[in-house]
Amino acid sequence: MPQAARRRRAAPTYQSTATHSAILKQPVNDEPINRRILWGTPTLGVIRMEWANAVQGLIMPCNWSNGRVVPYNYMVADAQNLIAHEVLTGKWEWCWLLEDDNIVPANTLLLLEEHMRTGTVPIVSGLYHLKNSREPLLYRGSGTGAYWPGPKTWKPGDQVWVDGVPTGCLLVHRSIFEVMAKDAEVYELRNQGQTVQIKRIFTTPRDYWIDPATGSYQMRVGTSDLYWCRQIIRDKVLARAGWPRLAKQTYPFLVDTRLAVGHIDRTTGQVW
User: Fold this and answer.
1) Pairing relation of β-strands 37-40 and 94-98?
2) Are 259 and 105 in contact (CB under 8 A)?
3) What is the distance between the alpha carbons of residues 41 and 189, in angstroms, rounded to a whole number?
4) What is the rounded CA–CA span in Å between residue 16 and residue 28?
5) Strands (DSSP E) along the chain, which ranges?
6) pLDDT per residue over 81-119, tens digit each?
7) Which of 180, 226, 222, 227 is closest to 200 using CA atoms?
8) Residue 141, phi-psi category: left (phi > 0), alpha (psi -120 to 50), beta (remainder)
9) What is the DSSP-derived secondary structure letter of residue 43?
10) Sign of torsion, CA 246 89 107 117?
11) What residues contact residue 95 under an 8 Å CB cut-off, 6+ apart?
């Protein structure tokens, strides 16, 4: 294909579309505006109609306060860091990470609101599975594989405690980001010609080493979600963020399996 005919990759951008952004300068009766939850969706800009329909069909709790931010064309970890940046600078109480291939049920916000109202768990994931598989994306222990349902483990509908969760449909309290930001490296991203300085709360792990047997150079690349979970446990983030009871648990993250999320193949439309 001639060089001139190739489609150029769009520059990374993101914008905040907070529900209250239009009225923040004009508060009604001088009442403070409650920034309760910010939705964040990393995307490359290609979504399925099934995903759009699922988001548009969400049941909103009464008197609900939310905003949305959509980092476009960034690597996943960078997009997640931009979302966390918006949560912290915008003083949002909760963050909902929703990836653009996770098909959420209509009652998702009602279930998340239960956890927000109770306020006893700062990290709650929905349940979804690997594409082309029924393998659940929830984990107990590093290198042990998935934590499968069974008579001695869990069944659909249970509240399941684990030490590794994905970020496709994840509720996070701002206190977690606040503590992680204290120790995080500051780095720069470009957005619409501007430079944004943000904290590296999420990281795509890359390990490099020399194989002693062959003398060859090796590289291992992981995912930002499980690395982030390990960081929280390793750095005692839960205790420092004011969640001491959970910090003592071997499995401190909650998966609400009532929140049954579909994992859609963007090419075929198959949902797993």
Assistant:
1) parallel
2) yes
3) 17
4) 22
5) 13-16, 37-40, 66-72, 94-98, 102-103, 123-127, 159-162, 169-173, 186-191, 194-199, 206-210, 217-221, 253-260, 262-263
6) 999 999 999 999 999 999 999 999 999 999 999 999 999
7) 180
8) left
9) B
10) positive
11) 37, 38, 40, 83, 84, 87, 171, 172, 173, 174, 177
Element (H, E) at 8: none
The three-state secondary structure class of 232 is helix
Residue 14 phi/psi, 5-degree rounding, is -155, 150
In angstroms, the CA 216 to CA 210 distance is 6
Whether residue 37 contacts residue 66, with contact meaning beta carbons closer than 8 Å, is answered with yes
In this structure, the number of other CB atoms found within 10 A of the CB of residue 249 comes to: 13
CA distance 30 to 257: 41
User: Domain residue spans in the chain?
Assistant: 3-263
Which residues are paired to 100 by β-bridges?
A: none
Confidence of residue 63 (pLDDT cuts 50, 70, 90): confident
Contact 90, 38 (CB under 8 A): yes
List phi, psi (to 5°) of 15.
-145, 145
- Please state, for a pLDDT cut of 90, what percent of the chain lies above it: 71
- Tell me if 125 sits within 8 A of 170, measured CB to CB: yes
- Amino acid symbol at 54: A
Give the C-alpha separation, 254 to 122, whole Å.
9
Which residues, other chains included, contact 61 with Cβ-Cβ below 8 Å and sequence gap of 6+? 109, 110, 113
Q: Calculate the CA dihedral of residues 111, 116, 119, 124 and round it to 10 degrees.
A: 60
* 3-263 topology per CATH: Spore Coat Polysaccharide Biosynthesis Protein SpsA; Chain A (3.90.550)
- Indicate the pTM of the whole model: 0.85
